[in-house]
Amino acid sequence: MTKNGQTQQFDKAAFKAAVEKHLTTTYATTLANATPRSWYLAMGRALAEFTTTNLLETEKTLAEEKARSVNYLSLEFLIGRLTGNNLISMGLYENVSQAMEEMGLNLTDLLEEERDPALGNGGLGRLAACFMDSLAAQEYPAVGYGLHYEYGLFRQSFVDGRQEEAPDAWRGAEGYPWEVLRPELTQQVNLYGHVEAYTDENGTACRRWVPALTVEGVAWDLPIVGYGNKSVYPLRLWECRSTAPFNLARFNDGDYVGAQFPALEAGNVTKVLYPNDNHDQGKALRLMQQYFHCACSVADILRRHHAAGHTIEELAKLETIQLNDTHPTIAIPELMRILLDEYKLGWDAAWEIASNTFAYTNHTLLPEALETWSEALIQAMLPRHMEIIFEINHRFLQVVEAKWPGNNSIKRKLSIIEEGPQRMVRMANLCVVSTYAVNGVAALHSELVKRDLFPEFNELFPGRLTNVTNGVTPRRWIKYCNPGLSALITEKVGEDWPAHLEKIAELEQFATDADFQKRYMAVKKENKQRLADWVEENMGIELDTNAIFDIQIKRLHEYKRQHLNLLHILSLYHRLLNDPTFDMHPRVFFFGAKAAPGYALAKDIIFAINKVAEKVNNDPRLGGKLKVVFVPDYRVSLAEILFPAADVSEQISTAGKEASGTGNMKFAMNGALTIGTMDGANVEMREEVGDDNIFIFGLLVDEVQQLKQEGYDPYRYYQADSVLRAALDLLDTDEFTPGQPGQLSAIRANLLDGGDPYLVLADFADYVKTHEKIDAEYRDQKTWARKAILNTALMSKFSSDRSIRDYANNIWKLDPVNR
Ligand code: NBG
Q1: Ligand 1 within 6 A of 680 CB?
Q2: Strands 465-467 and 437-440
Q3: Three-state DSSP class for 20?
Q4: In angstroms, how far is CA 229 from the centroid of its own chain?
Q5: CA–CA gap between residue 808 and residue 819 (Å, rounded)
């Protein structure tokens, strides 16, 4: 990186000319007529000229250096807007801002024209994006492989408080300026058909797949720009197209619609992202997406491997493939199929390569999220893969038999095939059996993977199961989204911190410095104002920035317990109206969350929060002390405004259910204090900041398990706690839905008669008490400032740079290659 942080030769005049050229020739508009959107597009294309050049150069260097690379396979990459972030990574933010200024344009406004590429659901997809950023920043050779969904995660709006979903055409009509089509990388993908036995020229009995359908995979590369260096890695997204545009014979016969069927079907494969977070739906089209993704990616990895002059025997030495959850598991039998049927390797040789190439990250213990596919479905769509899975299982069960002779119950439990009326393939078991490393995403989660999910696997394959604690990129989640705080940090610790977050620890010494506290809190205030302005402008709600900004932003899920937050709000409402002695510091509760379209209770919770918001925001009896804001269409670009503005971060999942969380880290870095359970990465955050600087409440994992075993009775809590009772009973009235009682009853029913599966009522009292502590502590602004600063200072462990170094050192055995 050069002195001013610029990694890129920048010729301002040439850049301006390039922008104008794209405006007129790529987007066919005149300078006089250009809209802000066309300016943003033209600027993006002009910048992409740099990144595409660097991408090709990086590819060349890595091939020449014969570098070992990681291939990150993920069905989701929730990258968010690229332009602002790439400008920062290239060190060109100021230069480009100036160039655009000279053309009469404001860079900040232009950046707002970019639509978020929402190619992911939540934490899992965003983690993949942070990881790509950290791989590039540290120059660990990498390719990200994903799908080029035509529609990303649905856009959310509220109609009378209820979630409505609309398609997200993220590329717009003009296409996305940062992506480049790579026609020479096109792959063919086969589907359906049957398997044939034949004898080859050496007299060996062989198997081959005779597919019934072939589609084409077209590669789009998005540039992942290394912060402060010249490496640019591809995020390679596959789009499915039909091999033949249409059936000419049928077209000539006059069957115009029927003639296009193959094209219509192929186009469907990558049409839309499945909108489920932590939930497996088992739909055939989803399996097709997964296989399409894996077939294209594995073929491309082999293409690169051979193009660099390596033999197939060297694959595991030069390439490692990280499976982001079980979604790309079918890559394992796909590689085996290629090694066996195309390279004609024997089983043992093929297995040696494949099982030393793949590693797997587990992101959840929730049973409903652990993928299984019906054997019948795989058999029909991928008959040869089903044979290979059976063979893997057969050999694996022999290993189990050797370890636990005659123990059929262990065999049933570990088998890749689940017996039952419909036999199912357990993708997680296939992963554990076929990979060289399996990791959980936070210390607690990884322990539970060993202890509760895969204890026998852990015995069978000692050392295979490990931990890599998640992290987030400090470039997007501090430097880019919080310029005020970034300037303050740079002033105190120097300008290296975005690439070396350890440096941020030096802030600790200023935590008690009165002047620094003042400036730190002034930045927080500005960020709260920025959010308040957004809310006013987009939702028409006026907010007071002296209030505590208390924020819960994440997917809507019962285990994340947005309804616990809601019950707390209802209890405050009740007390403000009924208890004249009750006093509280003004508070704004923010929510941002999308519910999976088929998840009824999650949608009911959104509706309830919106209805409560409508009432409390307009109830003069509350004296402005309580506001509730549910921001619609929560997405990365909104997160960038929300995290920096938070005083309090809500991380309140039932202990044992949230594998890690990553929003928790973003909040703390930006100086919010966490209220959280001993779950996921909260546990490690507490270790870093100390008990005094985080608000922990609720049952521990073992207490949760014990309570469930003993027989949990939510009514006990309902009867014993009058505040809780009042809050719950409000849901059965028409208080928030005038004239229409019962509209919010489903939530109350779930918590009482439904057995309260996530122990909301059991944790309620402690949650309320802990919030009272927050209320008291916030009134002492000096103490609060000290704690907030310490949170920023003590979060360096949670940089995704550290996560990636852990993967590189402990799992992938990967070295950086500096350009
Ligand atoms: C999610 C977990 C989060 C975790 C992210 C990233 C799935 C299956 N899991 O707690 O729920 O932070 O993965 O690891 O989406």
Answers
A1: yes
A2: parallel
A3: helix
A4: 25
A5: 18
The pLDDT value recorded for residue 8 is 75
Q: Which of 22, 236, 385, 554 is catalytic?
A: 554
DSSP, collapsed to helix, strand or coil, labels residue 6 as coil
- Nearest Cα neighbor of 227 from 468, 474, 483 is 474
- What pLDDT was estimated at residue 619? 98
Q: Are strands 695-696 and 673-676 parallel, antiparallel or unpaired?
A: parallel
Task: Tell me the sheet residues that pair with 359.
Answer: 322, 437
37 catalytic per annotation: no
* Cα(530)–Cα(508) distance, integer angstroms: 27
CA of 785 to the centre of ligand 1 (A): 30
Mean local confidence (pLDDT), 586-593: 99
The alpha carbon of 14 and the centre of ligand 1 are apart by a number of angstroms equal to: 44
CB 224 within 8 A of CB 135: yes
Query: By percentage, how much of the chain surpasses pLDDT 70?
Result: 97
Q: Is 746 in the pocket of ligand 1 (CB under 6 A)?
A: no
CB contact at 8 A, 500 and 471:
no
- Residue range 321-334: mean pLDDT, rounded: 99
Give 254's contacts (C-beta < 8 A, 6+ positions apart). Answer: none
**Residue listed under structure tokens 């499915």:** 240
Looking at the DSSP bridge assignments, the partners of residue 205 are 199
**Two structure tokens written together for 608:** 């309830």
Q: Please report, for residues 193, 376, 592, the alpha-carbon distance to residue 381 in angstroms, rounded to integers and kept in the order given.
A: 7, 9, 38
Residues 142 and 125: their CA atoms lie apart, in Å, by: 17
Q: Which residues contact 80 (CB under 8 A, 6 or more apart)?
A: 116, 117, 126, 129, 476, 635, 636, 637, 639, 640
Residue 517, SS3?
Answer: helix
Q: Is the per-residue pLDDT at 167 higher than 90?
A: yes
Pairing of strands 648-651, 673-676: parallel
pLDDT at 266: 75
CA–CA distances in Å: residue 264 to residues 71, 154, 241, 243: 30, 21, 9, 11
Q: How far is CA 85 from CA 7, 62, 474, 477, 640, in A?
A: 14, 24, 11, 10, 11
146, containing H or E segment: strand 142-147
Locate the DSSP E strands across 169-273: 180-191, 194-199, 205-210, 213-225, 232-242
DSSP summary character for residue 653: P
The question of whether 786 is a catalytic residue gets the answer: no
Q: Are 213 and 190 in contact (CB under 8 A)?
A: yes
CA 639/CA 32 separation, integer angstroms: 35
CA of 291 to the centre of ligand 1 (A): 22
Strands 142-147 and 69-73: parallel
Does 115 qualify as catalytic in the annotation? no
| Percentage of the chain exceeding pLDDT 90 | 96
CA–CA dist 232, 754 (Å, integer): 51
662 is a catalytic site residue: yes
Residue 477 CA to ligand 1 center (angstroms) comes to 18
Residue of 341, 321, 343 whose CA lies nearest to 332:
321
The pTM score is 0.98
**What is the per-residue pLDDT across 282-313, written as a single tens digit (0 to 9) for each?**
999 999 999 999 999 999 999 999 999 999 99
Q: Does residue 263 surpass a pLDDT of 90? A: no
What pLDDT, on the 0 to 100 scale, is given for residue 267?
Answer: 78
pLDDT for 74: 99
Sign of the Cα torsion 428, 760, 653, 273 reads positive
629: part of which helix (H) or strand (E)? strand 626-630
Spell out the domains of the chain, with CATH numbers in brackets: 66-80+116-469+805-812 (3.40.50.2000), 474-700+757-793 (3.40.50.2000)
Residues in the chain: 819
Six token digits for residue 218:
């077209």
Cβ–ligand 1 distance for 653 under 6 Å, the answer no
The answer to whether 355 and 436 have CB atoms below 8 angstroms apart is: yes
CA–CA gap between residue 635 and residue 802 (Å, rounded)? 25
